[in-house]
UniProtKB/TrEMBL annotation:
Pathway connected to this protein: Cofactor biosynthesis; FMN biosynthesis; FMN from riboflavin (CTP route): step 1/1
Domain Riboflavin kinase: 112-231
Keyword Magnesium on entry: yes
Gene: ribK
Name used for this protein in its record: Riboflavin kinase
Length: 234
């Protein structure tokens, strides 16, 4: 099921739409709706073409309008998006998609690599599996396909780090706490799946983990070093 957001459900108005450029600029600086992120008022001011004082006023305005929340950490200003801001960005993405009459897709190309075997454990946990079925529409094979992106594609993974995706909540089983994971529906050589953006990972920034209802190594006859293409739906 598509995660589309209607104008009526968001209460989208011209005032909110005027804030979209500011939200997109904050996305560029890594602001998301999960973690507080420190911001540099001077750098933001240079990008906008104004003063740090005016940027601070803009931040306060976005806070008053329920688009961001602020916190002071060791005397430094940090912010994160509210759910309303993420939904507004999603609304813009969906609107552009409808205008173009096609899905917005990021193409990632890389080579298959071996992981540490942790994927099979995590993908078998009920706390994750139930959410994957509910939010992605499939039960993933207990394992992930690890892909090291080619240098010219690695930069596009940064978009996934900051764009709102489908969020799988973290949970605790009473003994251990497991972190949340953001994901994006994707296709791998025509097979359905999803790319995971994991909060805590041992992989480098240029590596992605892909899940699917299929064991992709078998279905696509893949071995380490093989090149694969992943089309990520925004």
């Amino acid at each position: 099921m598509e995660n589309t957001v209607s104008r009526a459900s968001l209460g989208i108005d011209y005032k909110l739409l005027r804030r979209i450029p500011y939200l997109i600029l904050l996305v560029k600086y890594g602001i998301n709706d999960r973690d507080y992120t420190a911001i540099n008022l001077t750098r933001l001011a240079n990008d906008i073409g104004t003063t740090p004082q005016n940027v601070f006023k803009i931040i306060n305005r976005l806070t008053d309008e329920g688009l961001i929340v602020k916190a002071s950490v060791n005397g430094q200003l940090t912010i994160k998006f509210t759910q309303r801001a993420s939904e507004a960005l999603r609304f813009v993405i969906d609107t552009i998609r409808q205008y173009l009459d096609e899905r917005l897709v990021i193409r990632l190309v890389g080579n298959v690599i071996s992981g540490l075997g942790e994927g099979s454990f995590y993908m078998s946990l009920d706390g994750y599996v139930k959410q994957f079925i509910e939010k992605l529409g499939f039960k993933p094979y207990p394992g992930t396909l690890n892909i090291k992106l080619k240098p010219e594609y690695a930069k596009y993974k940064l978009y996934l780090d900051v764009l709102p995706g489908i969020y799988i909540e973290g949970f605790s089983n009473g003994v251990r706490t497991y972190g949340g994971v953001k994901c994006f529906k994707a296709s791998i050589h025509g097979l359905p799946g999803a790319v995971l953006v994991i909060e805590r990972t041992h992989h480098g920034f240029d590596t992605i983990e892909v899940i699917s209802p299929y064991r992709l190594r078998d279905e696509l006859s893949l071995k380490d070093g093989d090149e694969v293409e992943v089309l990520v739906n925004l």
